[in-house]
Amino acid sequence: MSGHGTPTPMTSNRCGPLSGVAEVPGDKSISHRSLILGAMAIGETKITGLLEGEDVLDTAKAMQAFGAEVVNHGGGSWSVFGVGVGGFAEPGNVIDCGNSGTGVRLIMGAMATQPITATFTGDASLNGRPMARVTDPLALFGAQTVGRKGGRLPMTIVGAADPVPVRYVVPVPSAQVKSAMLLAGLNAPGKTVIIEKEATRDHSERMLAGFGAEITVEETNEGRVITLTGRPELKPQVIVVPRDPSSAAFPVCAAIITPGSDVLVPGIGLNPTRAGLFTTLRDMGADLTYENERTEGGEPVADLRARYSPNMKGIEVPPHRAASMIDEYPVLSVVAAFATGDTLMAGVKELRVKESDRIDAMAKGLRACGVSVDEGEDWWQVTGLGPEGVPGGATCASELDHRIAMAFMVLGMAAQNPVTVDDGGPISTSFPIFEPLMGALGAKLSHG
Length: 448
Ligand code: S3P
Known about the structure:
By secondary structure, this protein is of the alpha/beta class. It has twelve helices and 24 strands.
């Protein structure tokens, strides 16, 4: 429900070395999917390590509204008693997904092939984001949608009573669109085929297989062809949610730019569809190592060790890497400001339709902090000022976007002057313990 409260300005002051162990919360993408797939299985799915950020809590409430029983045992341990594929009840009220594009788009997919009607809304950020990218293809299954101009929330979806299976090529690199279509395909008879030209995060595919769905993935000339057989009986699972690489990005990048730092971020998933930032930082010359590499729950995992890296060089980030680090560009642009030379980030049009227009939000705040940024529709370039050269000293707008707020807090840790964001509230959507966790490492964050 971010964005419904009073703005809480937050300031980050230049700090001494960051050190210690940063245990970041559970993965947001996997947390949403655990709740939704748990609700579509029959019986009790047990989840530990669930991210208890506002985005995920809104999805938990939504699953209850659709008839699943969701129990919070405390300490990140949850149970979902699912109603089975096709078993959703019609919600008695509007579903408020708060700030979460992932929540609303995946839930729309899950209900679109069931004979029920639901109305969705969110905060000012979510109600400004494009939903036609999901509702247009959901219409192929037989679902009907009425929304605001431009395909915006609030929006009502009338689920298909007699859904048909679909073959669909996803036109934008979006795991949310892909996942909405797969969740809808669960209750369509026969085989639904979803093709993505560029690989995006594959948690839905992995988890659907884990829940017992018949799903295959083939790499072809057309792209990744995902074939899902509809109407499976999903089996409840025991899920241990790994820590979120997108949250790990903040202590890792903070350590890399803050003189003298040495921080360990344990248990981070290095699924190749998510780990692009870490490869990029290493390409720039950051002192980032993977310790204790292992496999957990079928996913590659390591402890990340990030140390202060004063000799980083700007690079051209390969556009083909964009999907694997799409949420990490805001904080990468901060690191780029402390490198020497230009960092070019191209092929990133999707950044303009996130919780905010992330290119615009970062460019404005970085410029206010004395950093040069050039931009075009699908690219931007940051000119590095070197390890000690970033002035800071500005108030930046977080635009109801958690990752923008956290990126500017990281900037303030190593800039010459304090950096303020007008609203730190959105941070709780994905990283509710950001402030105490960074404070324990040595960051100097304050309110106001
Ligand atoms: C997500 C997909 C990405 C990402 C978002 C989480 C997911 O969005 O930005 O934070 O869990 O599927 P897009 O699908 O819009 O790229």
